[in-house]
């Protein structure tokens, strides 16, 4: 797949321990266009959780097409309908996407 003029690869992001309050949703934002260029209004998501099993809460996932072989930096955020944003604390996550196939990332909030 080619998007933004670059070859793209699928990447599945999992984030553990991302507890949300009623009305909040989980998103990802980062340093490339595909992740919103650090703009919370352009963050990608909202993430899904497996509501069929309460044992999987608060683990969330989302599939994103990203440029192949690219180092990215990102954070998770929680947003509500009013536009309030809660940023994940700590350092940025860093990941280099795979050059082909599908990548998998597992993080903890």
Task: Pick out the low-confidence regions.
Answer: none
CATH class: Mainly Beta
Q: Could you name the CATH topology?
A: Immunoglobulin-like
* Strand residues, percent: over 45%
Return the average pLDDT rounded to an integer. 91
User: Which quaternary structure do these chains form?
Assistant: single chain
Radius of gyration: 14 Å
CATH arch. level architecture: Sandwich
What structural class should be given to the helix and strand makeup?
mainly beta
Total helix count? 0
- Count of individual beta strands: 10
Enzyme class: transferase
Pfam families: CBM_20
GO molecular function, one term: cyclomaltodextrin glucanotransferase activity
Organism: Agathobacter ruminis
How would you characterize this protein structure?
The chain has 109 residues and is an all-beta fold. The chain has no helices and 10 strands. The protein has a single domain (2-98), classed as Immunoglobulin-like (Sandwich), CATH 2.60.40.10. A hairpin with a 5-residue loop joins strand 7 and strand 8 (85-87). Residues 3-109 form the CBM20 domain. InterPro entries: Carb-bd-like_fold, CBM20, Ig-like_fold.
């Amino acid at each position: 797949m080619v998007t933004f003029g670059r070859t793209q690869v699928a990447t599945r992001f999992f984030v553990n321990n991302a507890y949300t309050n009623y009305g909040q949703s989980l998103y990802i934002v980062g340093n490339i266009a595909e992740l919103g260029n650090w703009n919370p209004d352009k963050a990608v998501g909202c993430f899904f959780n497996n509501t069929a099993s309460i044992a999987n809460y608060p683990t969330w996932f989302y599939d994103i097409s990203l440029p192949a072989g690219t180092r990215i930096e990102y954070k998770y955020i929680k947003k509500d309908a009013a536009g309030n944003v809660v940023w994940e604390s700590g350092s940025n996550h860093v990941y280099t996407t795979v050059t082909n196939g599908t990548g998998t990332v597992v993080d903890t909030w």
